[in-house]
Structures are given as structure tokens and as C-alpha cells.
Amino acid sequence: MLTSATPTLTDTRTERIIRIVAEHLEVDPAEIGEGDLFVEDHGADSMALIDVLAALEREFRVAIDQEELPKMVDVRGVRAVLDAAPPW
């Protein structure tokens, strides 16, 4: 039985996404909310976002086309792209 203290697969995945984004944007993971915009709220540039994309591919073992970057503006967008990405 799941309790509110038991992490779900989605929570764990979201935490992993936030950890990766935080590392590449050089911010504290606690500062990243699911709806925070990477560029506007955290000052990400295009190179940092490409680094995030590559790290996500390695972490989740998926292939993400760079054309997906415009969708990856926040954690929710990243989750949607990951859900649609083909596995290696």
C-alpha cells in the first residue's frame, strides 16, 4: 500500500530530472519547481540545455532529438519528452 511518504515512480523520475537540470544549470535542486522555466527563471543558455538533453539521454537511456529542446522548457516538458522518447 502506498502512503504519502512512499515515493512513486513519477516522483523518483521527477527527482532525477530535477537533479540533472540543477547540476547543469548550477543551481540548488530545491530551487527548481516543476513549472519553473529553465531560461527565464534560472538563466539557462542553449549550451546548458544541450548538456541537460545529453545527460537525460544517458540517465534514462533514451534518444532525444535536439528538435525536442523547445518543448523542454520546464520539468513537465522534460517529462513529456522523455515519455515519448524511444529507448536505446
Automatic annotation (TrEMBL):
Record-linked InterPro entries: ACP-like_sf, PP-bd_ACP
Domain Carrier: from-to ranges: 11-86
Pfam families to which the protein is assigned, alphabetical: PP-binding
Gene3D superfamilies (UniProt xref): ACP-like
Protein's name in the database: Acyl carrier protein
Native source species: Actinomadura macrotermitis
Gene name as annotated: acpP_2
